[in-house]
User: Which sequence fits this backbone?
């Protein structure tokens, strides 16, 4: 009897132990299942809001999202961190003639709003502007992005432009580019089946691409190839190799890119970079109204409306044209359907 009781007791203990083992295995299995689900959720989670916008905006027609980059070497403060007057005019021309649905500002200081200085020039729906945090990157492909020269922060901006075009598509522009009505004619090339619209410039009789303007659909093979070159062959001390020289060589040597990338010869050319001072400082007689845009390479933060009034130069005439057109369009829209509300003060 005692032996039987002992056997039953041992049996119950073994069954209890087996039950505990099974419970432990079940719990571990559940934890593993939850981990897998969480991992899959993280890797397939919805894209950030700004990327969702592009998925709907980049629908195979003309891209409708505009990307700007604003990188600072140190924390910006007002008013010096704000846009200069000419940069506000550049932005005004984008709103007037590109007519973007959204403007995305990619910056390492997303809590700093740099557009206060534009309020007297532009009255628009500023809620369509979104500040997107982009960390600065000091290394690309294992190579330093010239730590001894603060101006090379422009290379970080160029890498950001290419990255966001690859991720989302759209139009990237520098704030020294002034757009004109014919930009719509250029952008209509997308309807001819082109994947990208690029801009070239002529420097010392050698063509190079210029990243002051680039418009592409997302996942463009051309953008991917240019970006890959930054990772594999970044020239630390060469200002235009990765952003200009190599992108042009890629286009010239690749039959696919010659079919899918439309190259504009007006925005950053005619006048070329070496001759742009004539356009800026004289009435050059060089036609500009037919251009889709003018890349000025001009970064004078003291230039303002007073300079426009007193200077008799081609550049001043062009700025005056944009400002006058802004007033005209503003009044036309207030009489009709006010899709954009632009005013010049």
Assistant:
């Amino acid at each position: 009897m005692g032996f039987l009781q002992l056997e039953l007791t041992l049996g119950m203990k073994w069954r209890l132990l087996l039950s505990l083992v099974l419970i432990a295995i079940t719990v571990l299995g559940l934890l593993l299942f939850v981990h897998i689900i969480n991992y899959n959720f993280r890797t397939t989670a919805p894209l950030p809001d700004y990327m969702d916008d592009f998925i709907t905006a980049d629908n195979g027609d003309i891209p409708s999202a505009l990307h700007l980059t604003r990188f600072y070497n140190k924390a910006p403060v007002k008013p010096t961190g704000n846009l200069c007057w000419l940069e506000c005019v550049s932005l005004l021309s984008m709103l007037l003639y590109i007519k973007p649905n959204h403007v995305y500002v990619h910056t390492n200081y997303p809590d700093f709003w740099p557009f206060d200085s534009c309020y007297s020039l532009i009255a628009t729906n500023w809620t369509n502007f979104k500040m997107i945090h982009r960390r600065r990157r000091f290394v690309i492909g294992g190579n330093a992005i010239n730590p001894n020269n603060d101006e090379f922060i422009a290379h970080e901006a160029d890498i950001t432009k290419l990255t966001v075009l690859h991720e989302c598509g759209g139009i990237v522009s520098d704030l020294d580019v002034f757009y004109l009505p014919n930009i719509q004619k250029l952008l209509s090339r997308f309807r001819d089946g082109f994947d990208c619209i690029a801009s070239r410039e002529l420097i010392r009789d050698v063509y190079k691409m210029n990243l002051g303007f680039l418009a592409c659909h997302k996942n463009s093979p051309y953008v991917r190839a240019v970006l890959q070159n930054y990772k594999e062959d970044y020239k630390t001390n060469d200002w235009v190799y990765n952003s200009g020289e190599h992108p042009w060589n890629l286009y010239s040597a690749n039959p696919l890119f010659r079919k899918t990338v439309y190259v504009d010869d007006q925005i950053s050319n005619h006048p070329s970079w070496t001759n742009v001072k004539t356009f800026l400082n004289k009435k050059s007689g060089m036609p500009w109204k037919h251009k889709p845009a003018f890349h000025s390479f001009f970064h004078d933060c003291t230039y303002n409306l007073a300079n426009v009034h007193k200077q008799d130069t081609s550049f001043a005439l062009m700025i005056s044209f944009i400002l006058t057109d802004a007033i005209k369009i503003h009044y036309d829209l207030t009489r009709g359907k006010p899709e954009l509300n632009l005013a010049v003060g």
Notes: Residues 280 and 315 are 5 Å apart (CA to CA). The chain has eleven helices and eleven strands. The longest helix spans residues 2-43.
